[in-house]
Amino acid sequence: MSTGRRRCAQCKYDFIPRQLPLRFTRDEWREILHLFLMEQSSNSIAEQTGFDKKRVLRALLRIRMALATDVPEIFSGTVEVDETYLGGAWRNKRKMIRDTGTRRGRGTSKQPVFGILCRNGQVWAEIVMSVDEDTLLPLISKKVEQGSTVCTDTWKAYTGIAARGYVHRLVNHGERQYTDGKGNHINGLLDSGDT
Known about the structure:
Blueprint: E1 6-7, E2 14-15, H1 26-37, H2 42-49, H3 53-69, E3 78-86, H4 95-99, E4 111-118, E5 123-127, H5 133-143, E6 149-152, E7 167-170
Parallel strand pairs: 3-6, 6-7
Antiparallel strand pairs: 1-2, 3-4, 4-5
Helix pairs in contact: 1-3, 2-3
């Protein structure tokens, strides 16, 4: 057609390419979402469901957009904050890099990521350049409402939290303490600071 529209050979529906509506049944959406949450690739989802890969990619884009809009601007109540380090396992690094040695946890050359988890299940995370006080405390002040209970480990960057108007609860991982028995812990966030 001269208007840029095309016509489906089966149902005779006129459409503009790349602007097709996503028509999935509830069960099809549930299957795509399940595979997405199981960390399957778009190729794998398309293969397992029998849908066209472009359709699957558009569905995954909609899912990601919905997940991104669900994060609140400011967390309140009881929150957990922690930092972690992302990167490959050292046994998979080149021999030249492995021979130089490495530190585990803080001091590693892996990429640090800082995360905040609200006990209602909402999470916010951001890649940070360092895990010092000057980086982490402004992020906490920006994302957590004053007066909230903030649960952390004993990392020195968190020492100024109580002075900023928060109730600060600590767990000492160095002494193998992962909860204080009163519900204060940071087990909701993936703690791979020792890897």
